[in-house]
C-alpha cells in the first residue's frame, strides 16, 4: 500500500506547529499512523519512507518523530529530499510511506 505525502494538518485540516519542525513532524507521523491503521497496517509494515523537507535542518525533528513510532533496529529504507517549497508556504515537510500488508 502507498500512503501519499502526509502534511502537518490535524483532523479538521488545520496546520499544526506553524514554524515548528518538531511539532510538524509529530503531526505528520501521527497522520501516517492513522492512515496505516485505516488499511490494517502499522509502522511494522512500512518498507520505505520518503521525506520532503524545505530545509535539511528539519531532519533531526523528523528523525525524533520517526523514533517515537519505529525503533532504530527496524528502520525502513528512507530518502530525504530538500525541496524549494511545498503546496503551502507554512508546511515545512511532507512524508510518504510504502507498506507491505500481509494478505
Question: Can you put this structure into words, describing what you see?
Answer:
The chain is of the alpha+beta class. The protein is built from two helices and four strands. It has helices at residues 21-38, 59-67, and strands at 2-6, 46-53, 77-82, 93-99. Strands 1-4-2-3 form a four-stranded mixed beta sheet. Helix 2 links the parallel strand 2 (46-53) and strand 3 (77-82). Helix 1 crosses helix 2. The radius of gyration is 13 Å and the shape is globular. The N and C termini lie close together (12 Å).
Short structural description:
The protein is α+β, with helices and mostly antiparallel strands. The protein is 26% helix and 25% strand. It starts with a strand and ends with a strand.
State which percent range the strand residues make up: 25-35%
What's the end-to-end separation, in Å? 12 Å
How many individual helices?
2
Low-confidence stretches: none
- Percent of residues in helical segments? 25-40%
Amino acid at each position: 500500500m502507498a500512503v501519499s505525502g502526509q502534511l502537518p494538518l490535524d483532523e479538521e485540516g488545520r496546520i499544526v506547529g506553524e514554524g515548528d519542525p518538531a511539532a510538524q513532524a509529530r503531526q505528520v507521523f501521527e497522520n501516517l499512523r492513522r492512515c496505516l491503521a485505516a488499511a490494517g497496517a502499522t509502522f511494522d509494515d512500512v518498507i520505505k519512507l520518503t521525506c520532503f523537507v524545505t530545509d535539511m535542518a528539519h531532519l533531526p525533528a523528523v528523525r525524533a518523530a520517526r523514533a517515537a513510532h519505529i525503533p532504530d533496529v527496524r528502520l525502513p529504507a528512507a530518502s530525504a529530499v530538500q525541496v524549494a517549497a511545498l503546496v503551502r508556504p507554512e508546511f515545512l515537510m511532507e512524508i510518504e510511506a510504502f507498506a507491505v500488508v500481509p494478505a
